[in-house]
């Protein structure tokens, strides 16, 4: 009995010690120094609304981005409403004041091309409030927070400085293309006198392409060796399209087929969200994005819209090299990674949720009592605590300790984020 009591007491003491070691707050001296540095280096932002007219708070970007070509705008999660608003205001300012006329999303190359073409030409007669759904995931177009930016894109199309929209992902992203993909592909092949009957497995599944990224449907639709046959047919079809005249449309359709094949391979080979899956996808997104920057939008300033983790310009771990690392390696200081972080998020019921752990720097940010601010890590001395290792929740709300200044160039802080709200039709 005594042994049990002693073991219990020891376990309590061990738990207490572990709690003190792991969950102790930042030492007061270091905390005060961090607070002092954050207060010194932060640039307060007055509003995140696109309608806010006094842009004096964003003028700091004029010098920060003076020689920039590629600006990557991250987001902690895809469902952060205030972040969506802040990015929208930044895009409007960058377009109207710094000459950024291209916005590329973490969305399908083909789908966003279709969306951009429809905004330009309206040949598909898609309603204005649904055009965003041709290319983007719902959280980037079908919300109250995203609506002003989509309308702004459309407004610029009839101006002297239109914004061109595109994407670089290999996934299917435009929900409003569902039911249209098969017909659009068939129309393209027929126009170019390519006999789809020469690709029997592809032809049989042309209206099920999105479903083939799900294991249940794939196993139901493709029997025996048909997976391999489908991939071979898509490769042959891509090669056939590549032999056509090098028009922008033909090039896009060849890329579409290439991305489609890689998307199927990713879905069939890797567990969704796993590190191997992310490594495979990011390497291909990098290939696509670099092509867009160097060829499609050569010599133009480009904004890249994606999640924070894809902007990271340092290897995440031994098995994962994020998209941002490829971009930073190629464009160097002509690329700038701006990531978004918050202290907490307000739920639909009005409660504060997703608060950081005790170690996280977001607690320091919160103590400044500044609703929004920007910190340019590039111009901060190496001796600063902000250029050393610190804990942050900037990667999907997870408390992580890293030298974050190696992963991105700047932080846009939103004290209390919000949840996206779906638009009512």
Structural class, by secondary structure, is alpha/beta
H/E topology pattern: HHEHEHEHHEHHHHHHEHHEEHEEEE
Helices, by number, come to 15
Overall domain count: 1
Question: How far apart are the first and last residues' alpha carbons, in Å?
Answer: 68 Å
Structure description:
By secondary structure, the protein is an alpha/beta fold. It has one domain. The chain is 44% helix and 15% strand. It has 15 helices and eleven strands. Strands 1, 2, 3, 4, 5, 6, 7, 8 and 11 form a nine-stranded mixed beta sheet that branches. Strands 9-10 form a two-stranded antiparallel ribbon. A hairpin with a 5-residue loop joins strand 6 and strand 7. Helix 11 (248-269) runs antiparallel to helix 12.
Q: Main attributes?
A:
9-stranded mixed beta sheet; disordered N terminus; 425 residues; 15 helices; 44% helix; 11 strands; alpha/beta; two-stranded antiparallel sheet
């Amino acid at each position: 009995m005594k042994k049990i009591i002693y073991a219990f007491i020891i376990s309590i003491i061990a738990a207490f010690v572990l709690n003190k070691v792991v969950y102790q707050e930042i030492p007061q001296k270091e905390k005060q120094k961090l607070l002092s540095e954050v207060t010194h280096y932060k640039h307060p932002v007055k509003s995140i609304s696109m309608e806010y007219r006094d842009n004096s708070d964003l003028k700091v970007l004029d010098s920060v981005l003076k020689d920039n070509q590629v600006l990557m705008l991250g987001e902690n999660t895809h469902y952060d409403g205030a972040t969506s608003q802040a990015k929208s205001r930044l895009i409007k300012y960058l377009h109207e004041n710094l000459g950024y006329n291209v916005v590329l999303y973490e969305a399908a190359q083909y789908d966003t091309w279709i969306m951009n073409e429809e905004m330009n030409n309206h040949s598909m007669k898609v309603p204005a409030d649904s055009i965003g759904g041709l290319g983007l995931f719902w959280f980037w177009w079908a919300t109250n927070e995203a609506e002003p930016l989509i309308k702004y894109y459309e407004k610029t199309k009839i101006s002297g400085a239109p914004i061109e929209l595109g994407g670089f992902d290999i996934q299917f992203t435009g929900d409003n293309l569902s039911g249209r993909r098969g017909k659009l592909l068939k129309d393209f092949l027929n126009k170019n006198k390519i006999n789809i009957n020469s690709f029997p497995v592809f032809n049989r599944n042309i209206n099920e392409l999105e479903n083939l990224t799900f294991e249940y449907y794939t196993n139901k639709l493709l029997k025996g060796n048909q997976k391999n046959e489908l991939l071979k047919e898509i490769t042959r079809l891509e090669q056939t399209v590549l032999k056509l005249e090098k028009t922008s449309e033909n090039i896009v359709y060849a890329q579409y087929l290439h991305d489609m094949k890689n998307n199927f391979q990713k879905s069939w080979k890797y567990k969704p969200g796993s590190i191997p899956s992310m490594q495979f996808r990011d390497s291909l997104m990098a290939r696509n994005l670099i092509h867009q920057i160097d060829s499609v939008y050569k010599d133009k300033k480009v904004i890249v819209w994606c999640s924070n983790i894809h902007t990271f310009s340092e290897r995440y771990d031994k098995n994962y090299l994020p998209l941002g690392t490829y971009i930073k390696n190629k464009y160097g200081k002509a690329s700038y990674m701006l990531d978004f972080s918050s202290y907490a998020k307000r739920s639909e019921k009005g409660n504060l949720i997703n608060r950081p752990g005790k170690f996280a720097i977001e607690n320091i940010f919160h103590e400044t009592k500044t609703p929004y601010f920007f910190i340019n890590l590039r111009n901060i001395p190496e001796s600063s605590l902000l250029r050393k290792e610190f804990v942050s929740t900037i990667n999907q709300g997870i408390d992580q300790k890293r030298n974050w200044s190696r992963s991105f160039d700047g932080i846009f802080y939103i004290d209390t984020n919000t949840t996206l709200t779906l638009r009512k039709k």
